[in-house]
Amino acid sequence: MAPKVVLLPGDGIGPEIIAPTVDVLAAVGAELEYEEHAFGGACIDAHGTALTDETLAACRASDAVLLAAVGGPKWDTTDPSKPRPEQGLLGLRKGLGLFANLRPVRPLPALYDASPLKLEVIERTDLLVVRELTGGIYFGEKTRTQDSASDACVYTREEIERIARVAFGAARSRVTSVDKANVLETSRLWREVVRDVHATEFPNIELEHLLVDNAAMRLIAAPRHFDVILTENMFGDILSDEAAMLTGSIGMLPSASLGGDGPGLFEPVHGSAPDIAGTGAANPLAMFLSAAMMLRHGLALEAQAAAVESAVDRALAEGLRTRDLGGAATTADATQAVLQHL
Predict the structure, then answer these.
(1) Structural fold of domain 1-107+249-342
(2) Helices 14-27 and 331-340: crossing angle, nearest 10°?
């Protein structure tokens, strides 16, 4: 039986980049069965909630979930009683138990000139951000009155242990654990537990601890220093977006969110870009690379994953540049350029 993939096009440019991704997957010979569901703002418009029970059940029953992008000004609100597209993402992460977010950052030689950083700073950078995805301040208890608000940041030993194991397991030589242990109690526990996991299970991998502000500076000043960055939910969100600038565009970064035995969620790091939705200018490459991560981490189709990544590399090496990369190629142009190499 063909593996079942749930497609969540979402909002903005989402539908425009997920459709050509299915073409790329077909071209690489991945025989998959697809089921599409409304998600995010589109789901709020249709059903009054960003994630329906039916969609969550379909995702749980699938082999992998491929998500494009959610959100847009239409659904922006500070009213806590109104649904927001991002609630669908949080609900999906929690509902599928996706506690580990992997974001590889590898600037491609063809795009070195697209980065705002100097060539000698970014060349040969090849790092992975491992972000804890279901704990911390995003999921802590929240309070709100007219004049005050609070968000609890809570972590348990078990939550830290399991994400630390993912980071050490992915590392070639070094894990840099990022926290704010000089100020935050959760960070002190984080540091202690990561030390324990390192000492008892992964003593052959080097471990270093960095405070988040120092890590943010070093990511820009000396990105080659990093192999695997391990950090909690909020710091990971910020640092991985910062790391996107090493590649020249957030339109180039894929991600995978993995849990235990269930399906993983694969999505580009960029947002729904409502300002260019419908213009045909969206860069689909991060979506293609997210599909490659799905082939590798979700469906164990390594050869097909490598073929997609290679096709993207070669299209860029031959001069493909979408608007965000300083060129004029459309979504269709970018798709054709990649398909030609498959």
Answers:
(1) Isopropylmalate Dehydrogenase (3.40.718)
(2) 10
DSSP codes of every residue in 176-227: EEEE-TTT-HHHHHHHHHHHHHHHHH-TTSEEEEEEHHHHHHHHHH-GGG-S
Exactly one of 53, 76, 213, 275 is catalytic; name it: 213
Q: Which residue has the higher pLDDT, 25 or 262?
A: 25
Q: What are 293's strand-pairing partners? A: none
Single out the catalytic residue among 138, 179, 313, 324. 138
What are the pLDDT digits (tens) for 189-248? 999 999 999 999 999 999 999 999 999 999 999 999 999 999 999 999 999 989 888 887
63 is catalytic: no
Domain 116-247: CATH class, spelled out: alpha beta
Residue-wise pLDDT for 74-114, tens only, equals 898 888 788 999 899 989 999 999 999 999 999 888 888 88
> Cα torsion at 37, 41, 45, 51 (round to 10°)?
50
Confirm whether 333 is a catalytic residue. Answer: no
Catalytic residue check, 227:
no
Select which of 63, 237, 313, 324 is catalytic: 237
Residue 228 bridge partners (DSSP): 128, 175
Query: Does residue 155 carry a catalytic annotation?
Result: no
Question: Among 23, 151, 196, 241, which one carries the catalytic annotation?
Answer: 241
Nearest to 265 by CA among 274, 252, 275, 256: 256
What SS3 class is residue 341?
coil
Give the number of residues written for the chain: 342
User: Does residue 250 carry a pLDDT above 80?
Assistant: no
Alpha carbons 175 and 208: distance in angstroms, whole number: 6
Q: Do domains 1-107+249-342 and 116-247 have the same CATH topology?
A: yes
User: Would you say residue 251 has pLDDT above 90?
Assistant: no
The token pair that represents 107 in the structure block: 């600037």
Amino acid at 23: D
Parse the chain into domains and list their residue ranges: 1-107+249-342, 116-247
Assess contact for 140 and 153: CB atoms under 8 A: yes
